[in-house]
Amino acid sequence: MKKVTLLVLALICLKAQAQSGLDNWIMNQGEYASYWENTASQGNPPTYVFYTSTVLANVTKVCYNNTYVWTESDGMTTGMGRFLNPGAPTAQNYVYRFPRVPSVPATKTGVPMVGSIGLLNNGVPAYGLSNAHYYNGTNNNGMGVGTWNVEVYLSEGFVLDTTLGAHPQQQGAYHSHANPLRLYEGIPSNEHSPIIGYAFDGYPIYGPYGYSTPMDTGSGITRMKTGYALRNMTTRTTLPDGTVLSSGQYGPAVSGTYPLGTYVEDYAWSVSNGGDLDEYNGRFCITPDYPSGTYAYFITIDGNGVPEFPYILGTSYYGAPEMDDITMGVTITIPSSGVTCFTDPLSVKEQEKMDAQIAPNPSNGIFNLKLPDASGLVELEIYNATGQKVFAVAFNGNEQLIDLSKESAGVFTLKVTNNGKVSYSKIALQ
To answer: Which of 55, 176, 81, 183 is nearest to 125 (CA)?
Structure first.
């Protein structure tokens, strides 16, 4: 399925890269959300039942004007994984708003500890670093946000699914905390990761691999390493920024009951930790989508693919987030006029449709693509209905055989890049 991204552009490259902002939202193509539900009672071995819902999967609508981009989704996708906690995802009717040209304030806004911090490109929210519990002076039963906030992956990582590092909360809101693997797993680790979502400040979030030298595309690919590490301490009397707490704000001493890593505040960023990423968990760099450069966040994992703190974003946004996105209970509405909206990635602009001959279409597996106007190097990518890249080739000339015989039947989207122009078309596999 064709991915269509936000029109989120770095100001310095707005003109040169305006079209690159239309490539990454995974739009609904008629699929319904589906998931594995753990039907066992709490404490028993999990028993999974697969359900296909009546809720449309992925992003269902994108609108934009010169200032903002809006997205609509129900926060659900296809084939959500086997999360361990009881409960099931339910439709959430999300509308989020993103700045089309991000701004960088001198005073930073903290990333919410609890609730949404950004949106994956399949319409599933990314959540913050805490599990909504904090140390209340006696135990970890404080509800909400406090001084010492329980770190989510140590406390809940074992219940997350392995597809998106996600699970539903008690009200059925499915959300990701760490390593949304499905959104980049088809890309080899020696290639730059794709955009897998956007933070609420409008900057892109990439998978875990980028160029080893930020502004050099020839520098090789490396896993982006976090600059966060556990603090060296035995008592919890100061915060990571050096703030000295009053005795009533102390956390529990480091122990077997409360080991280092129990709380978000047990971690601190430092240049001496040798990471590739700054304290916001990103950097300014060139990417395949932004050849002139952009600020970008990166997913952090260790060498074995295990999620690594802070997972998605750091503890503050680099840019200025849309506050309505991160304020619980605020309803965002899309203007009734002055915006352009689309629900199908191929309807963004008529001129983006591919001047191509594809035969046979539908096919049992082999397609012949002819591009009458192609010249020089042609880059071809094909995406399935879940947004995964299933075929990619670069060739010279105007004709190419496409073999999808190993794929399941469905509708696929072709993306062709030639002479700086990107165009799209659909093919059907029987």
So the answer is: 176
Strands 94-99 and 116-120: unpaired
| Domain locations in the chain as residue ranges | 11-341, 350-429
Whether residue 362 has a cis bond before it, omega within 30° of 0: yes
For residue range 58-107, what is the model confidence (pLDDT) as tens digits?
999 998 888 899 999 999 999 999 998 878 999 999 999 999 889 999 99
pLDDT band at 117 (very low <50, low <70, confident <90, very high): very high
- CATH T-level assignment (fold) for domain 350-429: Immunoglobulin-like (2.60.40)
* pLDDT beyond 50 at 136: yes
Asked if 95 and 333 count as a contact pair (C-beta separation under 8 A), the reply is: yes
pTM: 0.78
| Per-residue model confidence as pLDDT tens digits over 340-355 | 887 765 444 333 455 6
Question: For the chain, first and last CA: distance in Å?
Answer: 15
**Residues 164-196 as b or e (16 or more Cβ within 10 Å = b):** bbbbbbeeebbbbbbbbbbbbeebeeeebbbbb
* Contact status, residue 122 vs residue 77, Cβ threshold 8 Å: yes
Cis ω before 310 (30° cut-off from 0) = yes
Per-residue pLDDT of 297-322, as tens digits, reads 999 999 999 999 999 999 999 999 99
